[in-house]
Design brief:
Length: about 475
């Protein structure tokens, strides 16, 4: 069925048709006029569609099929690690002992849940090389802000109030400078060199006595490992600053390298990325933060501790930055991550990295003849192409992304990082089969050939989706969120 043939629920409406039947009320009818102020009462009946139950069920089922998710198709979103969420995680999160808890229950009645949280913290400490972890932050950017607030409190406690700047690479995730700004810092950009790595000379130039921290992900957003990380850590630490690890790309080094061993003082993790919690639709996420020993006093409180055989929350933390989220974090996502870690084990987590890196390099080399490759070197979990070649033919990277929709794929990240012209950033993850990778690569190759032979088909894409190409600026600034009669 073509998109113009698909009727909307209002177009199915027939006067007098209803989708429910209720028994007559056996209690007195309520007079809403006595309960609500006059201005809150409708003067006219709402214009709702009048349809049968079957029609409304088909309508919402059809809507659900228009959503794209990792369970329905390949989702190669660079820098976001959109990998499969094992269903055993969902089953465990729904155990009555987890799903039916109340956050205000007495600690003595939720010892099993507290043990899981404590054990998860211990696993994350080992995985990251940190000394302590908090599970409170609700997402990655929230974890960034939490970590920066701890760094700020650390410097202030030492009387080092002149440290007002956070250094951020020009290839950084956009949340890095945003989080630094919200935490009260100024941001300073450090350039990348010709190899796509942090320029050490520029880093030496921008780091000084006013540096609070360097924020960095490793591998970086170009999918390249910062091989000079130990020297970078020395530059920052010698100046009195701290190193912050953006954990968005941890999938590339899981069980192979630890941020703590690279010299990082603070790290946030994305349990909804690396550790397979559901990702997208606005959440919920989970962004635990790990710290080295000298930052432990500033952790958000309460801190979960083990006292003998009992697990309890410690509120006596006078230097804490305070609570950063109501209750104790997104518990359901933490349960999913814990299940994933325990089912995978050390060898399984190591295989995650190996297969993620293998998949990315395989795709990169297959696509290399058809797109520009800005950094022709071994990548990690993701890689960056450039659509400059296609742009000369009148086909933009945006057009390529729209055309991929016709093949049933969610497009990769485009126009990021900003330091690559016509950027296309692809992350296959470890959970995709070779057959899926090959099918996606074949689609990309076909689009590259179309750009040469029939560019109009790419420029006018998508052709098979329910909604065609939108004015994306207007859609963001003036969204239409409800049905309007034409």
């Amino acid at each position: 069925m073509h998109k113009e043939d698909q009727p909307l629920i209002f177009e199915l409406s027939t006067e007098g048709r209803i989708g429910y039947s209720l028994p007559e009320m056996d209690i007195p009818e309520i007079n809403l006029g006595e309960l609500l102020p006059e201005g809150y009462l409708r003067e006219e009946e709402p214009e709702l569609p009048e349809v049968s139950e079957l029609d409304i069920m088909r309508h919402y089922t059809a809507l659900s099929k228009r959503n794209h998710g990792v369970d329905s198709g390949f989702y190669p979103l660079g820098s976001c690690t959109m990998k499969y969420n094992p269903k055993i995680n969902e089953n465990v999160a729904r155990f009555n002992g987890f799903a039916h808890l109340h956050p205000l229950q007495d600690e003595s009645s939720v010892q099993g849940a507290l043990e899981l949280m404590y054990d998860l913290q211990e696993h994350l400490i080992e995985i990251t090389g940190m000394d302590e972890v908090t599970l409170q932050p609700a997402a990655g950017a929230h974890g960034e802000w939490t970590g920066l607030m701890m760094i700020r409190s650390y410097h202030e406690a030492n009387g080092d109030t002149k440290r007002t700047k956070v250094v951020v690479p020009d290839s950084a995730h956009g949340t890095n400078p945003a989080s630094a700004t919200v935490a009260g810092f100024e941001t300073v950009t450090v350039k990348s060199d010709e190899n796509g790595l942090v320029d050490l000379e520029d880093l030496r130039r921008v780091v000084g006595e006013d540096t609070a921290a360097l924020m960095l992900t490793n591998p970086n957003t170009l999918g390249l490992f910062e091989e000079n990380i130990l020297e970078m850590a020395e530059i920052v630490h010698s100046a009195g600053g701290k190193l912050y690890y953006d954990g968005a790309n941890l999938n590339a080094v899981l069980s192979k390298a630890r941020p703590g061993d690279m010299g990082f003082d603070v790290v946030h993790l994305n349990l909804h990325k690396t550790f397979t919690g559901p990702h997208g639709g606005g959440g919920p996420g989970s962004g635990p933060v790990g710290v080295k020993a000298d930052l432990i006093p500033y952790l958000p409180k309460p801190v979960l501790v083990k006292n003998g055989d009992q697990y309890e929350f410690d509120y006596d933390r006078p230097q804490s930055i305070g609570r950063v989220k109501p209750y104790y974090g997104n518990f359901g996502i933490n349960v999913r991550a814990y299940t994933y870690i325990r089912t995978m084990g050390p060898d399984g987590l190591k295989a995650v990295t190996e297969n993620a890196v293998l998949n990315a390099n395989y795709m990169m080399r297959r696509l290399e003849p058809f797109f520009d490759l800005p950094f022709d070197r071994h990548c990690k979990h993701e890689f960056v192409l450039s659509g400059k070649r296609q742009k000369k033919l009148g086909v933009r990277t945006l057009d390529i992304a729209k055309r991929l929709l016709d093949f049933g794929y969610h497009p990769p990240t485009i126009y990021f990082p900003l330091n690559v012209e016509e950027c296309i950033m692809i992350e296959p993850t470890e959970t995709e089969s070779k057959e899926t990778l090959d099918a996606f690569v074949d689609a990309m190759i076909q689009i590259a050939k179309e750009a040469e032979e029939n560019p109009e088909i790419v420029q006018e894409a998508p052709h098979t989706t329910v909604i065609g190409r939108l004015d994306e600026t207007m859609a963001a600034r003036k969204p239409v969120l409800r049905y309007q009669k034409q």
